[in-house]
Amino acid sequence: MAGDSQEVPKLQLEAVIGFNGHVLSGLQAHPDREHLIYPLGCTLIIKNLKSGKQGFLHGHTNNISCLTVSKSGRYIASGQVTFMGFKADVIIWDYTKREIYAQFTLHKAKVEALAFSPNEKYLLTLGGQDDGSIVLWNVEKKEAICGSPASAHSAGHCLTVGYSSHSDDIFISAGNRTLRVWELDLPNRKIRPTECQTGQLKRIIKCIEIPEEDSFFYCGTTSGDIMKVNLKSRLLSSCGPVKQKFSKGVNSLKMLKTGDLLVGSGDGAFSLCSSNNFKIIKRVELEGGVSSVALRGEGQQVFVGTDAAQIYCFGYTDFKPELISTNHSSAVWDTAFPHGSSELFATCSQDDIRVWHTESCKELLRIKVPNMTCNALGLTQDGHSIFSAWNDGKIRVFTPESGRLKLIIHNAHSMGVTAIVSSGDSKRLISGGGEGQVRVWEILQDSHKLVATMKEHKASVNAIKIKSNNQECVTASSDGACIIWDLLRFVRNQMVLANTLFRTVCYHPEEYQIITSGTDRKIGYWEVYDGSAIRELEGSLTGAINGMDISQEGGHFVTGGDEKLIKVWHYFDGDVTHVGIGHSGSISSVRICPNNRFIISTSTDGAILIWRYPHSS
């Protein structure tokens, strides 16, 4: 039933909030000057700069590790990582058709870097440190021409490659204490390296930039300086800056038509410096280390991606950063809508809570709590506060407009707060902790009061749902029990036991049944009145189910989990009506928005996906 996902209709993906800023040179501007291309997990996103519309390229089986676009923009190539002992794919995409043109499987464990030749005849691929080989592919015939170990035995791993900007026969590889210029001998199917003489200089090179007139090329190093090397004589010409090096290394370089260099460094500084003496002309501090720099057209506009998952846009003349996209840079754990409103939603992850506008996917508010992880959050029904559960054992309540901290409950639970919900009158919070306790708090004007502690669970409480009359709640725990509590007498009404770690629980809107799910991949229907099992569905083929939400009229519900699929179910028939494919990390939470237009799902790779809800209410 759940396995017949071939015939099941697909969910329509409306938008994605996410960008993997840890991929070096992962953000690319397409030569048509209208699109940005960037990776998120195992998906490539093509975003139209004018309309903001997104297209998606699905084909990789694991996270994308490198990306390049050919000179005319006809092809995009991307490489991925995979598990040890398996081979990692390189995919060439046809840009106009938005489909796979060719797929090469040769490198072990990881593809480190890619480069197209200037006339798009060849694609150069470099394997990761477990592979260490460099391979040249014929793009038209879709076959390998030749390969070779990337660096000598005495040198370290190779980290990046670059192609000459005029000749299809000359390319450069660089890495840890290795810098080589290669020449292709096509009749003999050989590539022959020449070591570049750098004298006493020992450097780890992260990026190569080869200007249009390729007599020299530039290398950015982890030591924070830039090497200028003569391509003809293969000798080091100069290295700088001598005094003020770029902090945390040079991650990306781009040469402008004026002869100046754009430098992105690991401490978040983005600089314009002259290519002769490497003196800094202009410099801007950005949030997160700069991982990619992309030029639109001739460089009138520059796009910069950072590892804090932000994308900035610069005009060449004023050199002022404009933040065009913000995303979560680590796993998103929970998401919540205001009561009865679908315009906004809030998400939480490590270090912060963010509030987003649903239609435009723009970030409206960010509440930062450094070095802490927010496990769960919600908005009170009166809309006056955002309440959140944190792994340091504190409950924090914020104002939703300014993000000001209104209230903090210290030591709410001993092993971190893992679940939280608010009562319908917004006067009480019910929280669950890592040690298994369920606590009821009364929220007063500027203080709080512990009303009751209910100790029955033996392991962490993963989900809490409250009945609409505020007289009963249900908690799901990792000890294999779901308990229905009486919130007037603070005792257990019913208990549901199963051989699983319960992850999630939902009341049916008519509140006579609950549905549960967890690590045994089963979806269980239970009677609230006496806790008896009604039926069980096979929820997924592999992996736990982590998130579940039921529609307001109770006809359908949505699940998501480690299988990385969103499934929409018919509540009474128990059939899957739609499947959503798009996540590349485990799904941590799913929500149907109150007006039944969208489904929002979040995952552990930092992505937030917005799907069209398929059933009209």
Describe the structure.
The chain is mainly β and 617 residues long. 0% of the residues lie in helices and 55% in strands. It is built from no helices and 54 strands. It has a six-stranded antiparallel β-sheet, with no helix packed on it. A four-stranded antiparallel β-sheet has the order 1-54-53-52, with no helix packed on it.
Low-confidence stretches: 1-5
The biggest sheet amounts to: 6 strands, antiparallel
Number of helices: 0
The residue-averaged pLDDT reads 92
Oligomeric state of the chains in view: single chain
Class derived from helix and strand content: mainly beta
Describe the global form: elongated
| Amount of beta strand | over 45%
State the total count of DSSP E strands: 54
Strand order of the largest sheet: 30-31-32-33-34-35
Distance between the termini: 25 Å
The Rg value, from CA coordinates, equals: 27 Å
Q: Roughly what percent helix?
A: under 10%
Summed up:
The protein has 617 residues and is mainly β. The chain has no helices and 54 strands.
Annotate the secondary structure layout:
Blueprint: E1 13-17, E2 28-29, E3 35-40, E4 43-48, E5 54-58, E6 64-69, E7 75-80, E8 87-94, E9 99-108, E10 111-116, E11 122-127, E12 133-138, E13 143-149, E14 158-163, E15 170-175, E16 178-185, E17 190-195, E18 205-209, E19 216-221, E20 226-230, E21 236-240, E22 250-255, E23 260-265, E24 269-274, E25 280-285, E26 290-296, E27 301-306, E28 310-315, E29 321-326, E30 332-336, E31 344-357, E32 363-379, E33 386-390, E34 395-398, E35 405-409, E36 417-422, E37 428-433, E38 437-443, E39 448-455, E40 461-466, E41 472-477, E42 481-486, E43 491-497, E44 502-507, E45 513-518, E46 522-527, E47 533-538, E48 545-550, E49 556-561, E50 565-570, E51 576-581, E52 587-592, E53 598-603, E54 608-612
Antiparallel strand pairs: 1-54, 2-3, 3-4, 4-5, 6-7, 7-8, 8-9, 10-11, 11-12, 12-13, 14-15, 15-16, 16-17, 18-19, 19-20, 20-21, 22-23, 23-24, 24-25, 26-27, 27-28, 28-29, 30-31, 31-32, 32-33, 33-34, 34-35, 36-37, 37-38, 38-39, 40-41, 41-42, 42-43, 44-45, 45-46, 46-47, 48-49, 49-50, 50-51, 52-53, ...
